[in-house]
Design goal:
Shape: elongated
Number of helices: 7
Number of strands: 11
Largest sheet: 11 strands, antiparallel
Distance between the termini: 17 Å
Radius of gyration: 52 Å
Order of helices and strands: HHHHEEEHEEHEEEEHEE
Length: about 525
């Protein structure tokens, strides 16, 4: 069966050779016709040359005209230079204006300094006003004492004034007690807030309530002072004292009602504060439990570290044992015949998939074998099947290889070099367009050199149903973004096209580029395969 297949293949090759001869004959005929057309073109060119000589005379006349136009241009340049001088003068005027604006700015700075001194004087005057206010308060107290003396003289108003003074003193004492209680609760709250920052909003609310209490207190004091002034006026006039006492009673009643409201607000805030303190206590207990758990975690971590060190020492011992075993395996592999583990996919025949091979220089590694695209025995060295593998890798990655056999991958330059250096190999490129059209390219003597020579590409003869596009990279070293071996003087082609390849300037074919395009054909699948030449 195999001989019959070889005969059929040979017949097909003979038929192809005859077809190629016929196409060559057609090309020869075409070339002869092209030579005749070229001779005719030479005759025409001679005629055109005679016409060109006449055109040259016309060009000389045009040259003279250009000289005259150049003289005019020189005059225009002189005018431009004059305009430039005028613009420099204008620039000088602008610079003078700029200096004037700078002087204005300096004056403004001085004015600002004067304003600041005035602000300082205003601050001092405000301090003087405060001192005067204190003096007025002292005078008020003095007048109050005088008023008390006057009230003693007036027995009708004496009892009411005494009661007013007692109530006012009681109000002040109550206010003082409220303020002390508030300050005490505020200090406790601040201490608790330091332990837990969750109570910040309540502190703000308490601050606001304290400000409201102080504002209400100020209002009460103002009302009291106002009523006191009115009382003094009434005492001086010594008339209608009873009506003023009634108004004072009414004011006192209002003051007491407001005081009750303040006390209620204070109690409400106090209850909220107690609730927050309880919450803080709960938070504190949770923090304590967290501290305990963190300590337990640290202890466990120490135990794990000790176990890790113990396992690490055991691992080092195992690695040493494995090294000894590996050396023994290598010696055994040298003694055993090479037919046990193959160096290619040929022995696997029609059984595609991932198989282990052994190649001298790199040892054992897995390869993807293919027997469906171009016959049996092919090793897939590069695959793009719609995965998301990044082919913009450095030199080391391309040397070792990357990706996965089930998706996109590159076998590795060193492995490809070792495989192709064992014996003569052929390369098969399989391309599938988006519309389903299948293309192929085949090279009969594919190999790449070692790393010292930059993994230089060598292809051999071409056969396929696409253009021989890869020929552009023949005898070129491999390039990556960190190892530039191309002939492009403008930069690194691997950086420009985000992939490693055998670039010239920059490429005519790149099967590793990000977008799957070859010779303006949009692709959905690319495979590069290698096998020993049969």
């Amino acid at each position: 069966m195999r001989e019959a297949a070889l005969l059929d293949e040979y017949k097909n090759k003979v038929m192809k050779g005859e077809n190629d001869l016929q196409s060559c004959q057609i090309k020869v005929d075409k070339l002869e016709s092209e030579i005749n057309s070229l001779q005719n073109m030479i005759v025409k060119l001679k005629e055109e040359l005679a016409d060109k000589s006449t055109n040259l005379e016309n060009c000389e006349l045009q040259f003279k005209n250009l000289n005259s136009s150049l003289i005019e241009k020189d005059e225009n340049i002189k005018r431009f230079s004059e305009n430039i001088q005028n613009s420099t003068e204008y620039q000088k005027t602008l610079e003078l204006k700029l200096e004037k604006s700078k002087t204005k700015l300096i004056k403004q700075d001085k004015d600002i300094q004067l304003c600041q001194t005035e602000i300082g004087t205003l601050n001092r005057t405000s301090e003087n006003i405060r001192e005067q206010h204190k003096r007025i308060e002292l005078q008020f107290k003095d007048s109050q004492s005088k008023l008390i003396d006057k009230v003693k003289e007036n027995q009708l108003c004496q009892t009411e004034i005494g009661t007013l003074n007692r109530t006012s003193e009681n109000i002040r004492e109550q206010h003082k007690r409220i303020e002390l209680q508030f300050r005490d609760s505020q200090s406790k709250l601040i201490d608790k807030v330091k332990e837990n920052q969750l109570c910040q909003s309540e502190i703000y609310t308490l601050h606001r309530t304290s400000e409201n209490i102080r504002e209400q207190q100020k209002r009460i004091e103002l009302q009291f002072k106002d009523s006191q002034i009115k009382l003094i006026d009434k005492v001086k006039e010594n008339t209608l004292c009873q009506s003023e006492i009634n108004t004072l009673h009414w004011i006192l009643v209002n003051i007491r009602e407001e005081q009750k409201k303040i006390e209620l607000q204070f109690k409400d805030s106090q209850t909220k504060l107690i609730d927050k303190v309880k919450e803080n206590q709960l938070c504190q207990s949770e923090i304590d439990t967290l501290h305990r758990t963190s300590e337990n975690i640290r202890e466990q971590q120490k135990k794990i570290e000790l176990k890790f060190k113990d396992s690490q020492t055991k691992l080092i011992d195992k690695v040493k044992e494995n090294q000894l075993c590996q050396s023994e395996v290598d010696t055994l592999n040298k003694t055993l015949p090479n037919t046990i583990i193959p160096s290619s996919c040929s022995p696997f025949g029609d059984y595609p998939g991932v198989h282990e091979i052994r190649v001298s220089g790199v040892g054992f590694f897995d390869v993807l074998c293919d027997s469906q695209l171009g016959g049996p025995g092919w090793i897939v060295i590069q695959q793009r099947v719609g995965g998301k593998e990044n082919f913009n890798r450095d030199w080391a990655a391309y040397r070792e290889g990357f990706g996965f056999h089930k998706s996109d991958f590159f076998l590795g330059l060193e492995k490809i070099h070792r495989i192709t250096s064992l014996q003569r190999s052929e390369l098969y490129i399989h391309l599938v367009a988006v519309n389903g059209t299948v293309y192929f390219a085949r090279y009969d003597d594919f190999k790449i050199s070692n790393e010292d020579n930059g993994y230089k590409l060598s292809l051999g003869k071409f056969n396929g149903n696409v253009k021989d596009a890869m020929r552009n990279g023949d005898n070129m070293k491999f390039s990556t973004f960190d190892r530039d071996n191309d002939r492009s003087g403008d930069g690194n082609c691997a950086k420009a096209f985000s992939s490693g390849w055998w670039y010239t300037n920059c490429f005519y074919c790149n099967l590793n580029q990000e977008h799957l395009i070859h010779q303006s054909i949009e692709l959905k699948e690319i495979k590069m395969l290698v096998r020993p030449k049969q």
